[in-house]
């Protein structure tokens, strides 16, 4: 990747993504205070905390999505494979194919299921012929646990799928770019419980392949079901991070205890 500063140091080498004192300001007001955290391969990290605490703001830093927002400034260092991506000259097109993102509302294109999967790989020149395209479509849909449901209607509109299927299609579309990090911003908040369950299972299966994942969620049960690690944010500050089991069974910080016991939400 172009224009990235190399970084030595054990933690950065072991982590797929690391942040060091990352801050985000909107129009000069700091919404995210210095945040330092590591994300490892094959792990799911849940980002939790009350509304407006900066979870999505932080998540969007990890593939520099905030750069699209006018008057938004990202400070600090964000290491991806040990290279600082938070500097000018980084190729965002290429970065976002390696660090994919899945949003709250399923956002399939108004195209067929097959074309949804192939859209970005074609744009990046990664599909050479029909056989490669067929294989990529099948593999991506299988990895997102959607193949069996759609294999006989790949030419049909993605908009004809259920909400849960659309979200898994969006995950498949992301996987088609062969990312090694996927960011999920409340991916189940628009889904019913059964669809939620299948998306959660998909997230776990993806982690088992070695992909590093981070998920913003308001749903505490979801955090305990899908994540290995949990990070708690409050008023723009990362308060506590640790193994999910430990965070939910023996939280240290009083604000986290109050949040988990429903004193505020
Ligand atoms: N585009 C923006 N312009 C200005 N301020 C913003 C913008 N996006 C977020 N903020 C502010 O940054 C702070 C953190 O917001 P953010 O959406 O990251 O929180 P959150 O924890 O994800 O909230 P929620 O759970 O409600 O989605 C809030 O004060 C919010 O108003």
Please give a quick description of this structure.
The protein has a single domain, classed as Rossmann fold (3-Layer(aba) Sandwich).
- CATH class division: Alpha Beta
- N-to-C CA distance: 40 Å
Note the total helix count.
11
Percent helix, as a range, is 25-40%
The sequence of SSEs as H and E is EHEEEHEEHEHHHHEHEHEEHH
Tell me the β content: 15-25%
- Overall, the morphology is globular
Query: Which ligands does the model contain, each kind named once?
Result: adenosine-5'-triphosphate
Low-confidence stretches: 1-13
The major β-sheet equals:
6 strands, mixed
C-alpha Rg, in Å? 18 Å
CATH topology: Rossmann fold
**Mean pLDDT, as a whole number?**
92
CATH architecture: 3-Layer(aba) Sandwich
The total strand number stands at 11
Protein name: Phosphate ABC transporter ATP-binding protein
Keywords: ATP-binding, Nucleotide-binding, Translocase, Transport
Organism: Thermophilibacter immobilis
GO cellular component, one term: membrane
């Amino acid at each position: 990747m172009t224009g990235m500063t190399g970084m030595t140091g054990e933690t950065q080498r072991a982590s797929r993504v690391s942040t060091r004192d990352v801050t985000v300001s909107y129009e000069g007001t700091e919404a995210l205070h210095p945040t330092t955290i590591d994300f490892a391969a094959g792990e799911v990290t849940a980002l939790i905390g009350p509304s407006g605490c900066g979870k999505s703001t932080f998540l969007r830093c990890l593939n520099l999505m905030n750069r699209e927002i006018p008057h938004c400034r990202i400070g600090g260092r964000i290491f991806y494979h040990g290279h600082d991506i938070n500097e000018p000259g980084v190729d965002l097109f290429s970065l976002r194919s390696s660090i994919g993102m899945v949003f709250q509302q399923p956002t399939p294109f108004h195209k067929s299921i097959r074309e949804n999967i192939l859209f970005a790989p074609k744009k990046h020149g990664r599909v050479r012929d029909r056989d490669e395209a067929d294989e990529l479509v099948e593999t991506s849909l299988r990895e997102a646990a959607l193949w069996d449901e759609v294999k006989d209607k790949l030419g049909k509109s993605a908009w004809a799928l259920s909400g849960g299927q659309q979200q898994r299609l969006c995950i498949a579309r992301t996987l088609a770019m062969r990312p090694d990090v996927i960011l999920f911003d409340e991916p189940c908040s628009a889904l019913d419980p059964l669809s939620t369950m299948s998306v959660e299972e998909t997230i776990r299966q993806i982690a088992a392949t070695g992909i590093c994942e981070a998920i913003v969620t308001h749903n505490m049960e979801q955090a305990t079901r899908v994540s290995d690690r949990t990070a708690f944010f409050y008023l723009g500050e990362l308060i506590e991070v640790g193994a999910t089991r430990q965070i939910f069974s023996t939280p240290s910080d009083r604000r986290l205890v109050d949040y988990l016991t429903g004193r505020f939400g």
